[in-house]
């Protein structure tokens, strides 16, 4: 069984990062069906480059 790849906009990634700070990591990842490794990749890019870093996957 293959997983369908999803496209995440910069704004959606930022919203998810912000939600983790409010709702916690596990709850937010479950809500969006998102892996921890992908979230941490986004978070690292955001911390290093700001919103621009969230543009490329």
Could you give the topology of this structure?
Layout: H1 10-23, H2 25-32, H3 36-49
Helix pairs in contact: 1-2, 1-3
Q: Number of helical segments?
A: 3
Residue share in β-strands: under 5%
Give the overall silhouette. Answer: globular
Helix fraction, binned, reads 55-70%
Gyration radius (Cα, Å) is 11 Å
Q: Quick check: average pLDDT?
A: 92
Low-pLDDT runs: none
SSE-based structural type:
mainly alpha
Q: Distance N terminus to C terminus?
A: 23 Å
How many distinct beta strands?
A: 0
- Helices and strands, in order, run as HHH
Largest sheet: none
Keywords:
single chain, 57 residues, mainly alpha, 0% strand, globular
Question: Your description of this structure?
Answer:
The chain has 57 residues and is mostly helical. It is 63% helix and 0% strand. It is built from 3 helices and no strands. The protein has helices at 10-23, 25-32, 36-49. The radius of gyration is 11 Å and the shape is globular. The mean pLDDT is 92.
């Amino acid at each position: 069984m293959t997983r369908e790849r999803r496209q995440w906009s910069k704004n959606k990634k930022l919203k998810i990062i912000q939600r983790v700070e409010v709702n916690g990591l596990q709850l937010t990842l479950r809500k969006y069906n998102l892996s921890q490794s992908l979230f941490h990749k986004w978070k690292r890019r955001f911390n290093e480059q700001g919103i621009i870093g969230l543009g490329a996957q």
